[in-house]
Description:
By secondary structure, this protein is α/β, with parallel strands linked by helices. 39% of the residues lie in helices and 17% in strands.
Amino acid sequence: MQLTAMDIYRLLPKTNCAKCGEASCMAFATKLSEKETDLELCTQMAANELEKLENLLAPAVREITIGKGAKTVTFGGDEVLYRYELTYYNPTPIVIDVADNMEESAFDERVKTIEETEFERTGEVLTLNAIALRNASGDKETFAKAASKLKSSKFPLVLCSLDPEAMKAALEEVGDERPLIYAATENNIEEMAALAIEYDCPVTLFVQNDLEKMKELSRTLRAKGIKDIVLDPGTFVGEGIGDTLDNFVMTRRLAIKEKDEDFRFPIMGVPAITWLFEEDEVEGGIKEATIAATLMNKYSDIMIIHGTNIWELIPVLTLRQSVYTDPRKPQAVDPGIYTFGDVDENSPVLMTTNFSLTYYTVEGDLKSGKATCYLLVLDTEGRAVDVSLAGGQLNGSAVADLIKDSGIEDRVKTRNLIIPGLAAPASGEIEDETGWEVKVGPRDSSAIADLLLKLKGEA
Ligand code: SF4
């Protein structure tokens, strides 16, 4: 059952002293329940109540951070099975693998590609998050040398070897940077557990398609005092994807519904497995992206991918951005006037709503079309054009207020407003309320730049 603000409030001092920055203990409890403040800000708590609250507030899935200092990434921390019940926390880090036996120049080039991969979508720059160093050579010195080289990378590390000696050699080089150890198995669990303790690093437990064994070994690690554990129940390609999903869903259900302490850890997905069975770059990239998308939707808290083609990564990163938006908060930009190009008093005036996906789509089309214009953005509480028209947020008087409050009438001589094609039913009402002449623009913003060019030709 999900923790409520009242559950938290019962354990707070109830003095309403406001030292936490909130007006009351209830307000603080509400923010704690939504993870919008920190428990430590209440300095008035008795030790026993504090401990109870810390346990109560611990997420169903443990939150784990790898890396140190400026290069860290945090994952896990989820509370619910379904996003609409609350939200999902900590977007799945995308980790790209690098083999320790690559030619030096190819190694450097691949690391550079990983670090520089980024693209912007709806105002957010999407990037990769970590590097997985594979002990493909099977040699401990080669592994350690490559790990040492990655010290200069801007990303945190996942060290991949089932050989405890190779893992120790690499940890000697980068253990102080808190890499994720991948992986402890039934065969090496004692040695890998000892390394996780010695270097104070999180460790992945890899048990293929056997949750009973996973439980047993997770308990073994926990009994040694290891708290930061990542669970990898195996990623299978082809028809095996069904087993993969079953294991991921079962693991997450055991964590959230059953509060099974042996499963309350982040899950690792490894779509990179695809490349064991596929050599063709395009086929492999498509298959890997498909598996990554499947696992992104079903509880993969961290993921190792091999392909670095941007056409493969864009859908995965875009899906991640969508899955990890907070459904409780409208995705909105600030309302007001935005300008494109070198505007003057004769520049055309357009209008749209402040739903961020709408705004950034229009912005992208105006920029790529090299348009020069004003764009008035109406506060529709983050709703799209058709939704806000149906919901009443987009109406004549709201647009009249926007024109008045934004000061656009002092900046242009024109009194012509181009509204989105989907807002056509409100065009008459907008004209009546604003006194401006309304022109209905295209339904698809990709046609706006052409419309502006055409209007310029007519002027
Ligand atoms: S500091 Fe603690 S006791 Fe004071 S108002 Fe905040 S939650 Fe309540």
